[in-house]
Write a structure and sequence with these properties.
Layout (H helix, E strand, L loop, with lengths): L1 H12 L4 E8 L4 E7 L2 H14 L5 H10 L4 E9 L11 H17 L3 E2 L4
Length: 117
């Protein structure tokens, strides 16, 4: 029983990687950005939704269906580190700043963004 309790406690203390990732259409030179507190889950969820034809961003989904999966790349752009304050759980402001920073960087590189609706 002690081992089970210990594993449960360790699981609750785990912190998923957070940051920003990009889905990019190579031929259209467009990208979709998403910030999240759970990178692995969000990347996997986005890929699953796009393959299933149910991604909420209609323009991205339409391009995925027309151009095919081979025309797209999905990559993590940057990880956001947790602060030293163990009590802090809301990183929305930091994630929003991270997204704005990457939108500027990608615009400077000539990439067009899929706009959120």
């Amino acid at each position: 029983m002690d081992r089970k309790k210990k594993l449960k406690m360790e699981y609750k203390q785990m912190k998923p990687e957070m940051g920003i990732f990009m889905v990019q259409s190579i031929s259209a030179n467009k990208c979709y950005l998403e910030v999240t507190q759970n990178l692995r889950g969000a990347v996997n969820g986005t890929r699953f939704k796009l393959k299933g034809g149910v991604h909420p961003h209609r323009e991205l989904q339409k391009d995925w269906q027309e151009r095919g999966e081979a025309d797209f790349t999905i990559e993590v752009l940057e990880h956001l580190d947790y602060g030293k304050d163990e009590e802090k759980t809301d990183y929305q402001d930091e994630l929003a700043l991270l997204q704005m920073s990457w939108e500027e960087k990608l615009a400077e590189q000539g990439l067009e963004l899929y706009r959120k609706r």
